[in-house]
Amino acid sequence: MTAPAVMMVRNLDPGMIDYWCGRGYAHVDPVQAVAVNSVAPFVWSYDAEAGDLSASFLTRNSRPVVEFISASGFVNGITVPIHLPGGGYVTVNGLWNGPGRAFAAVAAQVLPGFALMAQAFQNDIGAPAPAETAPPRARAPALSARERECLDHAAQGRSAKETSRLIERSVPTVVMHLNAAVRKLGARNRSHAVAEAVRRGLI
Fold this sequence. Notes:
Layout: H1 15-22, H2 25-28, H3 30-35, E1 42-45, H4 52-55, H5 63-72, E2 76-83, E3 89-96, H6 100-125, H7 145-155, H8 160-167, H9 171-185, H10 190-199
Antiparallel strand pairs: 1-2, 2-3
Helix pairs in contact: 7-9, 7-10, 8-9, 9-10
C-alpha cells in the first residue's frame, strides 16, 4: 500500500488527508488492503455490534486507523474499488454513522446505487476513448515546474491561499498557474485538472 496521490473527503474531518497521505495511515488501512485486491464493492464496519462484518478487517497493525475512524463516529462503510488502465487505482468510500446492527440492511439497499455512482466516476476519470473515435495520440502537455507544483498542492487539498504561503507567491499568481494548467490539460475545472495530471503521470 502506498499513500494516495489524490485524496478528497466530504463531510469528514479534513485532517484525515494528512493522516492518510502524510502520516502513513494508508499503509495500515485494512479496508484499502482489501480493496486493492478486489474488484467487487463491499461493506465493512469497525463497530463491534456489526459482528461478522468487522472480523476480517481488524488487525493489530490497523489500530491507529480504527481509532481515528471510531473517533469520527463513522464506523460503517461501503467501498468500491476502481482499477484504471495503466495500473491506476482509486477507491470510492461512503461512511455511515448509524448503529452496526442496522448497517447490513442499510448497506444492502444503498450498495447498488453507490456502485453505479462509482462506475460513473470511473468512466469520467479513467475510461479511454474508444479506438475508433480516439484522436491521434498527442504529446503530454508541457506544464511548467510551477504549474506542476501548484497542481500538486491542490491534489493534497490545499487552497490557493495555502499554496501561496508555501511557495511564497501571491494568491493571484497561484490562481494564474492553476488556470494555465487547467487550460493545458483540457480540463473542465481544477479538480479535473488534478485527476488528469495524476492519470498522465505529470504529478
